[in-house]
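Q: A reviewer asked whether we had any structural model of the full assembly, not just the individual parts. We don't, so I'm hoping you can provide one. Inputs are below.
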Amino acid sequence: DQQVKQNSPSLSVQEGRISILNCDYTNSMFDYFLWYKKYPAEGPTFLISISSIKDKNEDGRFTVFLNKSAKHLSLHIVPSQPGDSAVYFCAVRAGGGNKLTFGTGTQLKVEL
Amino acid sequence: DGGITQSPKYLFRKEGQNVTLSCEQNLNHDAMYWYRQDPGQGLRLIYYSQIVNDFQKGDIAEGYSVSREKKESFPLTVTSAQKNPTAFYLCASKGRESEKLFFGSGTQLSVL
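A: Here is a predicted structure for the entire assembly that you could use as a starting point for your response.
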């Protein structure tokens, strides 16, 4: 039973436009949310995070939005660049826990 | 430079053989984790350790074993009981002051 879902396995966006990646979760006890970026044959690298007491967090071109009532998380990348092409994973932490549960990932392709 | 080192990068297992994947970190992190990535799937937690000489099963621990004799090291053994071991294995660590996991570069395990 998947607690964290990324329903779009892939997304294609033109360079300069906005990329929106989505993540849905089922457990209202999740209190911390993260996005990771992964290139093939490499480990994921941390991008941005948000705690459940906030609904938005920005870091440069990356913004994460949290809608707790809908149990929905999204990552906005603007403007998108070719180097953003990678697999993006959302990850969630249950309250007070020490482990992360990851979604299935979305392959983003930014085209010239 | 501080970081997480996984070795080897590629590993081949013969049927009935146990193999051990190495993970070393010099970040002085207390918690360490092993995840497995299969094509089209997210990262699934195998085992994690929050402190030396202690570890807990994750979501898919069957066929795997770990040890945590030193803070810096968290080796994973893939036993012959793991019937589908071909995957990309990722080790991660986390400090007390952060919710972020830091990942190694991964080990690709294949069956001969």
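A: Points you may want to mention in the reply: Chain A has no helices and eleven strands. Chain A has a mean pLDDT of 94.
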